[in-house]
Design goal:
This protein has 78 residues and is an alpha+beta fold. The protein folds into 2 domains: 31 residues, no CATH class; 47 residues. Helix content is 59%, strand content 13%. The chain contains 3 helices and 2 strands. It has a two-stranded parallel ribbon. The two termini are 21 Å apart.
Length: 78
C-alpha cells in the first residue's frame, strides 16, 4: 500500500467516524418504522427462528425482532 492509498483510508475512516456520531439519531428519527418492518419479516419467516443479519448496522431492526419472538439472530457488520 502506497503513501497516497494510506492517507485516503485515513480520510474515509475520519468521515465515517464523523457520520457515526449522528447515525443512531438519524435512524430513529422516524424515517424507518422498525416495528412495522419487523412485523412484516415475522410474517415472512413463519416458524423459522434462525436469522443471519448481514449489515446489522445499529441493531435497531434486530431489537424489534427480538421483542416479537425468541429469534436466534446472528448479526454481522463491518
Amino acid at each position: 500500500m502506497g503513501k497516497q492509498e494510506s492517507s485516503d483510508l485515513v480520510s474515509v475512516d475520519n468521515k465515517y467516524t464523523e457520520l457515526a456520531k449522528y447515525y443512531d439519531n438519524f435512524m430513529t428519527s422516524g424515517y424507518y418504522d422498525y416495528k412495522d418492518y419487523a412485523t412484516s419479516l415475522q410474517k415472512i419467516l413463519g416458524e423459522r427462528r434462525k436469522i443471519l443479519d448481514m449489515g446489522v448496522g445499529s441493531g435497531l431492526l434486530t431489537e424489534q425482532m427480538l421483542l416479537l419472538e425468541n429469534y436466534n439472530i446472528t448479526g454481522i457488520d463491518f
